[in-house]
Amino acid sequence: MMELIVVTGGVRSGKSRWAQDKALARGAEAVTVIATAEAVDDEMRDRIEAHRRDRPSGWRTMEAPKRAGEAILAAGTDTVVLDCVTVLTGMAIGRAGAKSEAAALEAMAAEIDGILEARGARAGVLIVVTNEVGWSVHPPTALGRWYQDGLGIANQRLATAADQVVLMVSGLETRLK
């Protein structure tokens, strides 16, 4: 079973940098980053490229906007950074065409199930990046509220299963577990 480390926090709170630093601090030279974002517009393309530039050049990147659990199993390194659950679960809702809260939660849960199953099937360390979107503005749409609720549930599942949980605020870490 992989050691599971979850890092959560707000947007631009330092989560991805912390995850990279954690992998480096553990002495990992061979790291696979599972990137869940898709370059759907220029702004997202720029964000993805900035994350790529920040990573050590020898790290492997796998694009996995869906079925992240399968990517974890195929990673081929002992250290895996999954960045991030927030985008992954949002994409899952979009692909499912969720028309109800139950459908949205089911789509998100399927991704979390895959991550946790993969974690149990191999050795190493899995560092998972996610966001605390529940601290943000209350979404004006039902779909937005389903997503916010679903990510909160997903984060609870990941944190419960995790060996370590860290909250990032303004670039500072607070260990929760």
Please give a handful of descriptors for the protein shown:
Rossmann fold, 7 strands, alpha/beta, globular, 47% helix, 177 residues
Overview of the molecule:
This protein has 177 residues and is of the alpha/beta class. It has one domain: P-loop containing nucleotide triphosphate hydrolases (Rossmann fold, 3-Layer(aba) Sandwich). The protein is 47% helix and 20% strand. The chain has six helices and seven strands, in the order E-H-E-H-E-H-E-H-H-E-H-E-E. A seven-stranded mixed sheet has the order 3-2-4-5-1-6-7, sandwiched between helices. Helix 4 (85-96) packs across helix 5 and helix 5 packs parallel to helix 6 (142-161). The two termini are 18 Å apart.
Strand content: 15-25%
- Side by side, the strands of the main sheet go 3-2-4-5-1-6-7
Radius of gyration: 15 Å
Number of domains: 1
What fraction, in percent, of the residue positions are helical? 40-55%
CATH class: Alpha Beta
What shape does the CA trace take?
Answer: globular
- In the CATH classification, which architecture applies? 3-Layer(aba) Sandwich
Instruction: Please give the alpha-carbon distance between the first and last residues.
Output: 18 Å
Average pLDDT score: 90
Relevant CATH superfamily: P-loop containing nucleotide triphosphate hydrolases
CATH topology: Rossmann fold
Model regions low in confidence, pLDDT < 50 over at least 5 residues: none
